[in-house]
Inverse folding.
């Protein structure tokens, strides 16, 4: 008993260490507190920390900046660990045009042809600085213009990468320009009008896409980008209109940071936090008034200036429990796999205890997302991957509790890691708390239809993983005895029953939602077809089993094909780019879908080949 306890305590200590809020030295600027400040971007109120991490992830593929200089610690030098800069500090350096900003290597360029065209040498990580790209500005613009003239479907791989790079540069410059100081002449009305005429178009451009960091004077007014807010502040000052105190207060914070003035930065930050707190109280009163007058909750709940929720989101970003859970699932897989080689009882129990701890962490992270977003657990592809993994792990652990043969542990680890890995890669597209399209903006249908359909995905995938375990462990490696094989097939059969139920109910609920939204129950939409195919496939497999057309081996192989059917409904239909359900972001993922399908077909072929070869062309009773 002591071995599992020690293993869980070790990893619990590791998670606890990562869960502690960052410590700020008395001689350092309170950058983490700045990261908790609110701003409005892409339709929702979020902390500066979230903006920093999302933008940095989009342009570099990482949520932190890795410096090229050697670590100052002996341990870091020993293991080749380079010092890192947090996303919030990178954001502050960027929006204040601090000298360090131009030397951060954050633009990921991995296409060798493009690197050669721009005169850049390949390096570890394939990340390059603003200074390096600025030196090659003319060539970059030339390649962008050439690529833009070619239709998207006819562009070469290099041209596509040029367009991707241009989007990242545009995002970076928009971020910088949104916080720039307009430097207006306010000595006379004439001079101010002349300056406004010059920057009017720039204000309009930034107002459409820049992050809005200045909270309004009144709750029913929109947030403003800093650039536009300072223009308005200057105009209102001359016209003797009410002034937004948040505008100069935030500028004082940014100026103090650029000047590297510790005391002034922390003082200005506290003053700005006080203003924001007052606006949050006013916003809460306004939202309560709206709710009272309407008699129902306001649809814009997610856009409320809730400082507690915003601060918690910043903490959640720092803790990053999904990444920790992903790593722990990998450790659980190693323990579960080793339990089949020796010392089975201790390792299997260790895997099970650690899996329950990891599942608890996974659950905490899922509930935290629900709290932050104010939405049910599934709203986009990222959250669907998180929820599918969570549900599949729960089913697998329940099976382990019932059968206690180690198969549930193995399945939980096999499903938990890849689903969170998929979610981790989906997070590279930007904010995972995206504002929903109008047709999706409904709590009821998200909590019923979407959750049911996603549970159908989860259980179908779990059944497919059971089929893979059967092919590999029973047919190929011959590591399962007859009783374990029978129990694994029972688990597969039961899971397919659940999958058929959830998929069917979810599809029916989808028809009701479609009638409510579009006035029709069913249409030949790719996503609707994909959902129906899952129902039909699971029903086909169950009927084949009931009719005696397949036995153990056949059930396992057909269950594996369910992974392909699910992957098509989950991701594939979005690749078509048509239909009312094309909400997902799947650009650049066609090859991964093809590789996944190929891998599943390979395992299915392995199941047929190994079984036939083992019996000299006849199925052996153990494999039936």
């Amino acid at each position: 008993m002591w071995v599992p306890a020690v293993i869980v305590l070790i990893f619990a200590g590791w998670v606890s260490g990562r869960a502690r809020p960052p410590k700020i030295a008395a001689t350092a600027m309170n950058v983490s507190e700045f990261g908790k400040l609110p701003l409005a971007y892409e339709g929702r109120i979020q902390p500066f920390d979230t903006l920093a991490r999302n933008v940095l992830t989009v342009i570099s593929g990482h949520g932190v900046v890795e410096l090229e200089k050697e670590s100052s610690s002996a341990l870091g030098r020993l293991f080749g660990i380079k010092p890192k800069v947090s996303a919030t500090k990178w954001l502050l350096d960027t929006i204040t045009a601090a000298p360090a900003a131009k030397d951060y290597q954050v633009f990921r360029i991995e296409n060798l042809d493009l690197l050669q065209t721009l005169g850049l040498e390949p390096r570890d990580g394939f990340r390059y600085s603003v200074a390096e790209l600025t030196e090659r500005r003319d060539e970059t613009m030339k390649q962008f213009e050439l690529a833009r003239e070619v239709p998207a479907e006819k562009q070469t791989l290099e041209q596509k990468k040029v367009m991707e790079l241009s989007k990242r540069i545009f995002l970076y410059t928009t971020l910088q320009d949104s916080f720039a100081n307009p430097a207006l002449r306010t000595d006379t009305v004439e001079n101010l009008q002349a300056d406004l005429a010059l920057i009017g178009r720039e204000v309009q451009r930034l107002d459409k896409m820049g992050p809005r960091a200045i909270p309004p004077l009144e709750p029913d007014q929109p947030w403003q980008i800093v650039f536009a807010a300072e223009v308005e502040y200057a105009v209102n000052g001359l016209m003797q209109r009410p002034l937004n105190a948040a505008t100069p207060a935030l500028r004082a914070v940014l100026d103090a940071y650029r000047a590297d003035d510790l005391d002034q930065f922390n003082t200005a930050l506290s003053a700005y936090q006080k203003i924001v707190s007052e606006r949050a109280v006013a916003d809460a009163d306004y939202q309560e008034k709206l709710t009272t007058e309407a008699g129902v909750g306001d649809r814009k709940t997610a856009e409320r200036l809730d400082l507690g929720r915003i601060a918690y989101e910043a903490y959640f970003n720092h803790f990053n429990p999904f990444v920790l859970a992903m790593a722990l699932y990998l450790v659980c897989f190693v323990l579960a796999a080793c339990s089949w080689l020796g010392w089975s009882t201790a390792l299997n129990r260790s895997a099970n205890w650690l899996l329950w701890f990891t599942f608890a962490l996974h659950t905490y992270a899922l509930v935290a997302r629900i709290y932050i977003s104010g939405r049910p657990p599934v709203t986009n592809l990222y959250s669907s991957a998180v929820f599918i993994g969570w549900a599949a792990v729960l089913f697998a652990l329940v099976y382990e509790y019932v059968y206690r043969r180690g198969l549930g542990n193995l399945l939980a680890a096999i499903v938990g890691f890849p689903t969170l890995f998929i979610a981790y890669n989906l997070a590279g597209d930007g904010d995972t708390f995206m504002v929903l399209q109008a047709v999706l903006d409904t709590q009821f249908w998200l909590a019923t239809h979407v959750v049911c359909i996603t549970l159908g995905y989860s259980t179908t995938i779990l059944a497919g993983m059971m089929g893979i375990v059967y092919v590999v462990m029973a047919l190929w490696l011959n590591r399962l005895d007859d009783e374990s094989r029978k129990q694994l097939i029972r688990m597969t059969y039961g899971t397919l029953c659940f999958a058929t139920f959830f998929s069917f109910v979810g599809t029916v609920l989808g028809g009701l939602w479609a009638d409510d939204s579009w006035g029709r129950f069913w249409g030949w939409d790719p996503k609707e077809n994909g959902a129906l195919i899952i129902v039909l496939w699971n029903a086909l497999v169950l009927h084949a089993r009931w009719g005696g057309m397949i036995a153990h081996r056949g059930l396992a192989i057909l269950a594996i094909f369910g992974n392909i059917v699910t992957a098509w409904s989950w991701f594939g239909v979005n690749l078509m780019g048509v239909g009312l359900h094309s909400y997902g972001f799947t650009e650049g993922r066609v090859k991964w879908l093809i590789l996944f399908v190929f891998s599943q077909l390979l395992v299915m072929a392995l199941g047929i080949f190994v079984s036939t070869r083992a019996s000299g062309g006849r199925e052996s009773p153990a494999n039936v």
In short: Residues 296-302, 615-623 have pLDDT under 50 and may be disordered. The radius of gyration is 28 Å. Residues 4 and 439 are 48 Å apart (CA to CA). The longest strand covers residues 38-41.
